[in-house]
């Protein structure tokens, strides 16, 4: 869909009753999902009244500052699909990666539990914990946001890019498609030594200049005016979920690093094909607070 956009346009012209028979299961699920969203959007746009249970669609419909082209059913369907995917799949990847490394490297879990034991586990306090924040940063770094290039175009003015080390500036004409590879930048050894190692301590250094450089290199949420609007929500979710995970004694079950490592670029990270994800055996409350319990979860 990224490189052959005409395929999507072609599929959109087919009746919905025909499309599923021509698609693999995952795509059929996506089309069913989009169809349900379109039904909701059509109902709201045809209603014209203040709904009892407003949604993002009612707010967009009633916003006088938006042109009608921004309120078309197709545009709202595309926005809803992207928002749902970005707001669920990306945090899931980061949380899965963090969960694996917490269990694969017990020293990381020990440090996290010690930090959590010394604070009130409210969302605001959790987000201020340096080691927990380091775990979250490393999770985002090694899941990359988008692994494919995400092009941007400035239509109104030339872009001046300055290569500071070499003191050279370049003028890129307006309308030029520009992109940066998050995958390459997040694994740049000059910024992140031993880049494929999950190391939360690289975010707890006293060297503020190096920390600032590393923060600037983090592109998982994008940068500038197009930065992800869900960034703070995602980090709050991560903090609460990891604090909950740390309360339990778990062991990895038939899971290796291949189940979280970057092995395929489907515009987002994909581990080895056929992976069943991170699976664990829950033994009980951490610190022996409750007896062993059976079961495998993922």
Topology:
Layout (H helix, E strand, L loop, with lengths): L4 H9 L11 H23 L8 H6 L11 H32 L1 H12 L5 H5 L2 H14 L8 E2 L5 E5 L4 E5 L4 E2 L3 H5 L21 H10 L13 H15 L2 E5 L11 E2 L3 E2 L9 E6 L10 E2 L1
Antiparallel strand pairs: 1-4, 2-3, 5-8, 6-7, 8-9
Helix pairs in contact: 2-4, 4-5, 4-7, 4-10
Feature tags:
3-stranded antiparallel sheet; globular; mainly alpha; 298 residues; two-stranded antiparallel sheet
- H/I helix tally: 10
Order of helices and strands: HHHHHHHEEEEHHHEEEEE
Question: Please, what is the average pLDDT?
Answer: 87
How much of the sequence is in beta strands? 5-15%
Distance between the termini: 30 Å
- The shape is globular
Structural class: mainly alpha
Q: Profile the largest sheet.
A: 3 strands, antiparallel
Quaternary organization: single chain
Return Rg in Å.
Answer: 22 Å
Unreliable runs, pLDDT <50, ≥5 residues? 288-295
Query: What is the helix fraction of residues, given as a range?
Result: 40-55%
Could you give the order of strands across the largest sheet? 5-8-9
Total strand segments: 9
Question: What is the gist of this entry?
Answer:
With 298 residues, the protein is mainly alpha-helical. 44% of the residues lie in helices and 10% in strands. The protein has a domain of 71 residues.
Structure description:
This protein has helices spanning 5-13, 25-47, 56-61, 73-104, 106-117, 123-127, 130-143, 182-186, 208-217, 231-245, and strands at 152-153, 159-163, 168-172, 177-178, 248-252, 264-265, 269-270, 280-285, 296-297. The chain has ten helices and nine strands. A hairpin with a 3-residue loop joins strand 6 (264-265) and strand 7. The longest helix is centred in the first third of the chain and has 32 residues, at 73-104. The strands form four sheets. Strands 5-8-9 form a three-stranded antiparallel sheet. Strands 1-4 form a two-stranded antiparallel sheet. The chain has a two-stranded antiparallel sheet with strand order 2-3. The radius of gyration is 22 Å and the shape is globular. Helix content is 44%, strand content 10%. Helix 4 (73-104) packs across helix 5, helix 4 (73-104) packs across helix 7 and helix 4 packs parallel to helix 10. The protein has 298 residues and is mostly helical. It has a domain at 1-71.
């Amino acid at each position: 869909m990224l490189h052959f956009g005409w395929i999507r346009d072609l599929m959109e012209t087919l009746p919905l009753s025909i499309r599923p028979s021509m698609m693999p299961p995952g795509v059929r699920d996506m089309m069913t999902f989009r169809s349900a969203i379109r039904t909701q959007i059509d109902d709201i746009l045809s209603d014209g009244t203040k709904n009892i249970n407003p949604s993002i669609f009612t707010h967009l419909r009633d916003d006088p500052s938006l042109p009608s082209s921004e309120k078309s059913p197709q545009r709202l369907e595309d926005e809803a699909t992207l928002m749902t995917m970005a707001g669920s799949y990306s945090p899931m990847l980061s949380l899965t990666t963090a969960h694996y490394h917490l269990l694969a490297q017990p020293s990381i879990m020990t440090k996290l539990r010690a930090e959590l034991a010394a604070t009130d586990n409210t969302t605001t306090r959790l987000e201020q914990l340096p080691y927990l924040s380091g775990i979250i940063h490393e999770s985002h770094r090694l899941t990359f946001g988008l692994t494919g290039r995400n092009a941007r175009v400035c239509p109104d003015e030339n872009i001046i890019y300055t290569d500071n080390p070499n003191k050279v500036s370049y003028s890129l004409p307006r309308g030029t498609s520009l992109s940066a590879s998050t995958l390459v930048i997040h694994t740049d050894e000059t910024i992140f030594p031993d880049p494929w190692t999950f190391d939360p301590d690289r975010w707890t250094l006293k060297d503020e200049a190096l920390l600032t450089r590393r923060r600037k290199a983090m592109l998982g949420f994008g940068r500038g005016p197009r930065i992800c609007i869900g960034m703070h929500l995602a980090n709050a979710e991560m903090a609460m979920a990891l604090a909950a995970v740390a309360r339990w004694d778990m062991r990895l079950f038939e899971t290796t690093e291949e189940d979280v490592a970057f092995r395929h670029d489907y515009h987002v990270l994909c581990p080895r094909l056929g992976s069943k994800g991170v699976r664990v055996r829950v033994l009980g409350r951490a610190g022996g607070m409750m007896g062993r319990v059976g079961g495998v979860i993922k």
